[in-house]
Amino acid sequence: MSELISIFLSVAVINNLIISKFLGLCPFFGVSKKIGNALSMGIAVTLVMLVASIATWFINNLILIPFEIEYMNIIMYILVIAALVQIIELFIKRTNLSLYNALGIYLPLITTNCAVLGITLINAQESYGLLESIVSSLGGGVGFLLVLVIMSGIREKLEIADAPSSMRGLPVAMLVGAMLGLTFFGFGGMI
Amino acid sequence: MAVVFILTGIALVLGIVIYFVNRLVPHNVKGIEKTEEISSALPGINCGACGYPGCFAYAQALTANPNLITETPCPTAIQSPETIKNLEKTLDVTLDTAEMSKKALVHCNGNSEILFNYSGVKSCKGAAQLLNGYKKCPYACLGFGDCIKICPQDAITINPENGVAFIDQKKCIGCGLCITECPQNIIELIPVNTKITFQCSYLPLRDIPSREKCNSGCTHCRKCFRSCEADAITWNKDKAIPEFDIEKCTLCHKCVEICPQNTLADYTETKVNAKATAG
Fold first, then answer.
1. CB atoms near residue A118 (< 10 Å)
2. Of A141, B29, B251, B256, whose CB neighbour count within 10 A is largest?
3. In which domain, by residue range, is B168 found?
């Protein structure tokens, strides 16, 4: 149990996907203008990560390892994740329209998100079991959600800040991102 | 070799699974039938030109308010009469494509005095960084063709006579990509049934008489406004430019002839005769 908690915390805060692994930087700057959007994106990413890590664990252990073709994992994972997200989208669209509208454009967008691919590759690299994979991907999603929401909160305030005109928008967001990264270093020696 | 077969096999299985999921998920969900119907009548290429994220989102907005199609029309659908016919049937509205369809037009005659010999990066955006471009008028077409690169229809060429981008009105689909690409902001979407066009963009700097800067820029002399016998021209005082009423205009060409700077052009001729009134 304690091992699972340590995996969760490690992926969520200490080795955060965005802050220390630099994965998923595109939504980090693209979707962090409003807290509402950031929340939808974070939830969608968490959901897809969870499903993707379960599916790729089976692919990895039932196909890739027995046939000794682990080197094909990136292309195989992309294929599986893309198809999975399509299925999820079809399903949500017909069963829960309000959820579909809330996730909106983000669900198809994250089919090729590198954070989603990254967490599945990390799981394979660390040779986690099924339960460990699930916990690790949940941690990755929660960490992603956390950073995205913090960042969007700061950026909502930044919009009204009196920054020099050349720094307004993305440049100042980059600086804030760097400072946010520094604060996450504080978690460094936790485990 | 085995790898190829495994990968192909997985892809095939996934494709079949997606197909069956699509077949098996409930199709007649309450409250979505109308949206589904509209969505299938739309082009379905998810271009986003209507301002909504994808065709399904646009269909949802149309379900709530069918009149939206005249306010924010689907530019892709307008190009094909068949799609428009289907949309009319599903939405139960009649559409006037001539009114909705828009084309991009460059508002510049290219006669602005040249300030200096620009020899930097061959792009409008680069040239615009330096003193608002190498031409005296800050709203002049710089002619490096940033718009040519972005145009999906290859409708834009540079007119060699005046160095101004020329948009072929027959090829233009009104997607508006060139508008955001132009650093000088001189391209505008105009309705297809426009009769007379004002070929100058010189409005925000109205305090400075533009004849000092351009040989064919509007001097705000109002001759067109006074010459019109059909009351089709109104003088916009805030912008100091003439505005044209499509309904009242009789295409008598009085304003076109009287304009001392040749800033007015007959758009119906531009549409038909590609090269004659270029720029």
1. 18
2. A141
3. 102-272
